[in-house]
Structure formats: structure tokens, C-alpha cells
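tool=predict chain=A
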Amino acid sequence: MINSYLITDPKFYSTELSNFSEKLKHSLVQHQPNFALYRDKSNSEYAEFAELFIDLCSAFNNTKSMLHADVQLAFALNAYGVHLTSQQFDEIKKAKALGLFTVISCHSERELLEAERLGADAATFSPIFATPNKGEPKGLAQLQRVVAKISLPIIALGGITTEREVKAVESTGCYGFASIRYFVES
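tool=predict ok
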């Protein structure tokens, strides 16, 4: 089985702390993902939620906690790692110097090669399948090509909501799959 990567979204996990906690616990218990990312681009209490998120993930031996975009906060809260945006290639070396497992969002082969050159630990490649507001899907054939060509561990992202899609991306040899909806809808 490939690595699984849960990504939170306030639309599904709530912006109220106790509801967030309950919904996250349910997803962690039900799916036991290898990685979990706290992502909420508009929460003014991001640090407080991030701290709770890391504490909840630590109760699951198999789940490594990741924070979105904020290298310093990930380090300060002792998260396992950080997931950088595709605008943060210049943060890879800083994150690695702090000992953080570093994932970066990529949308092209050129970006994947740059992430590999800069020393990222892994990269998401997206969107693989149709996803609301995320552009034209890359598809399985393109995912398989980049997985075969690039040694950087690649995590498929985008439109992966069912076991059928998980099995399809697994067949490409990729390192893992990431999703928001798979972990709340399946």
C-alpha cells in the first residue's frame, strides 16, 4: 500500500476548535494516514489549531504531522515537517536546515526537477484527476512518466476520493497519494 496523506480543509474540518478536534480524530482513527497536513489559509488562530493538530497526530504512531507553508511555526511546534507552496522553493533549504521533512507542491516536471535539485524530501504533483478550481488534470499517464523519470518521491494529489482512484495512482509507482475529500467522504 502506498503512503496516505490527509490534508485538512476548514470546509470539512470546521473553524471551531472542539469541532475541528472531533472531526480530525474521527479521520485519524478511521484512516490512520502516514502523513497529515494542517492547512487553513485564512484561520487567524492558525498557531493554536496547529498545536492541537500536532498533539492529536502524535497519538497515532504512524501519522506524521505536517504544517502548511510556515517553516518557523512547524519547527517551533515540533511538527514532523512542512508542506511548502509552489511559490516557496526558496524555503526548502531553510526547512531542511531546521530538520523538517519537506514536501513542496509541484504542477510540472520542471518544478519537480527543481524540488529534487534543492533537496526536498518529497513533492505533491497535481491535479491528477478533475478537482474543483484546480485546472486541467495531469492524468495517470503523465503521473507515471514523472514517477519513472524523477527520483524524488512523488505524492499524487487532486481528485482522489475513492479506493478506485487510490489503486489507480498506486499502479503508477508513486510514493503516495494526498487528499482532502478521501479522508472525509470515504
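The chain has one domain: 3-185. The longest strand covers residues 101-106.
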